[in-house]
Amino acid sequence: MILIGVDLGGTNIKSVLLGDDGRVLQQASLPSHAEGGPRAVIEQVHRSIETLLADGGVDRARVEGIGVGVPGSIDFTRGLVLHPPNLPGWEEVPLESHLRARWGVAVAVDNDANCAALGEAHHGAGRGIAHFIGVTLGTGVGSGIILNGRIWHGQHGYGGELGHTSIDLNGPECGCGGSGCVEAYIGNRFMIARALPVIAHHPDSALYRQATRDPASLTPRDIAEAAAAGDALAHEILFDAGSMLGAAIASAANLLDITTFIIGGGVAAAGKPLFDGIISSANRRVLKVHRGTLSILPAALGNDAGMLGAASLLG
Amino acid sequence: MILIGVDLGGTNIKSVLLGDDGRVLQQASLPSHAEGGPRAVIEQVHRSIETLLADGGVDRARVEGIGVGVPGSIDFTRGLVLHPPNLPGWEEVPLESHLRARWGVAVAVDNDANCAALGEAHHGAGRGIAHFIGVTLGTGVGSGIILNGRIWHGQHGYGGELGHTSIDLNGPECGCGGSGCVEAYIGNRFMIARALPVIAHHPDSALYRQATRDPASLTPRDIAEAAAAGDALAHEILFDAGSMLGAAIASAANLLDITTFIIGGGVAAAGKPLFDGIISSANRRVLKVHRGTLSILPAALGNDAGMLGAASLLG
């Protein structure tokens, strides 16, 4: 059985051809052409699939299914992608039926964070783990819940929003309208907004020059690099971000008795200080029965998690 | 099929005999004799069952199973009740095998909050609802998660602790060792401790005399009664408690896309102000997709939920 996984992002479309044994036969990456609206983007998805098949020398008749991860919510009942924020012009797009009409095979569409979690479950850090929550740190704090090896969608298909766990009911307003969501502390933009005034008080930090002269250019990656180079303040900022995620993780672990969390995305590459912050905070906050049993793992697949998980939607 | 459900509490053992159609054939309530340790309590459980059968005129050969809810955690792998805080002397008690040995039928033991949720699922406010979280307000904030009509136990059997969702990572210390757990605001003792200084500043409140002259006697029930009689401050205290529970509920709804919450227990009887607080807070905090879809229902079974759910463990 040959399966195709597509990770449809706001900038690029990453896709993969998976063979019988789950082996990667071919990969492709094309620009999304998001500015062209749904029609242009869907055309690029078709082109990605054609590219995969041509480059992999695989006849399309051998393809049994196409899975797609999209950066938005899905209406599973009506088979619609619902206004993904990074795909302009998409309101309610029947992506599934577009692809089925064009390729004549089974098609499944799911949220990108769910696909990333499923990718880790089948091919990455989550192999052999029945229940876990996969967290992707980036602009937002995406997450997907795997229960009994499958994506938990919840009642309407919107399940998995660990990023919108409030860690302070009177905390800062989040983009979602809630207060104190963990995303409102550690989503890229929020993390930088919190870090800048702190850095401005530390002329000894390697980040000081950039943060005071060109604050708009500062990214979590800069902080991660400074921390890796030994900057104490950068280390503290990441540890602090980890502590906040740890608070949300502790509440989720208490609620669900899920004790494995797989952390990926840009900031997660920061590594040790972030993970140290998560682990110490979560272990301190969690119920006694869970203390010391938490397993906070780095994601293993990087940016490939989404397309691999998308292919696994049909597995 | 006749089933027996037993709700083993620190003070009383409530039990029920359920007929083929789930109809209640007989009920009993006996003191737990908790001060006598496990042996005395287990003897009372046996006596409860004997009483049910005798009073119901049912031959023990017709009983197909016994379910028991206990106020503590369960080690399902080893079949042990683990140190329930309100049953002195219980460390690790193989209650299941004691009952199986004595009665020769299928026995299932689960946590009391899980049983209460399952009781509401089969016989109460949760009938026909696939996924919900049942919350029992009392000394603690107990809860049980029903997914696809069944109790969600999680990885180790400790799932369902909504009361230990932190709503403020820097909030007051909870009995569990965590910070800002919703239980640390609205568990009976905590609610009273928060209310007393507020009441002391409101000589116009109906609660003022009791709170200043005999503070140790003030209970959530007193507050509920004052609110029902029109006391504005009592109303505010309950609304505020509801708001806090609403914050934890919003995070759980975002995480799981579960939008039904069934609220029972002593304080829940306070009714409107508490529910108004929950509903307005949760709807304000939840992701846009869930706003207006939340269903916050009063539990329907009162103190009977536990024993009815216990019987349903084998259903």
What does this structure look like?
The structure is a homodimer of 315-residue chains. By secondary structure, chain A is an alpha/beta fold. Chain A has 2 domains: 2-121 and 304-312, 2-Layer Sandwich (Nucleotidyltransferase, domain 5), CATH 3.30.420.40; 129-299, ATPase, nucleotide binding domain (Nucleotidyltransferase, domain 5, 2-Layer Sandwich). The first copy, chain A, contains 10 helices and 13 strands. In chain A, strands 3-2-1-4-8 form a 5-stranded mixed β-sheet. Chain A has a 5-stranded mixed β-sheet with strand order 11-10-9-12-13, with helices on both faces. The N and C termini of chain A lie close together (9 Å).
What brief labels describe this structure?
homodimer, 315 residues, alpha/beta, Nucleotidyltransferase, domain 5, 2 domains, five-stranded mixed beta sheet, 22% strand
**Rough shape of chain A?**
globular
Distance, first to last CA of chain A:
9 Å
What's the helix-strand series of chain A?
EEEHEEEEHEHEEEHHHHHEHEH
Number of helices of chain A: 10
Major protein interface: A-B, 49 and 49 residues
Please give the oligomerization state of what you see: homodimer
The number of E-state strands of chain A comes to 13
Instruction: Name the CATH superfamily classification of the largest domain in chain A.
Output: ATPase, nucleotide binding domain
> How are strands sequenced across the largest beta sheet of chain A?
3-2-1-4-8
Our Rg estimate of chain A from Cα atoms comes to: 20 Å
Per CATH, the class of the largest domain in chain A reads: Alpha Beta
Name given to the CATH architecture of the largest domain in chain A = 2-Layer Sandwich
Helix fraction bin of chain A? 25-40%
Q: Which structural class do the helices and strands of chain A define?
A: alpha/beta
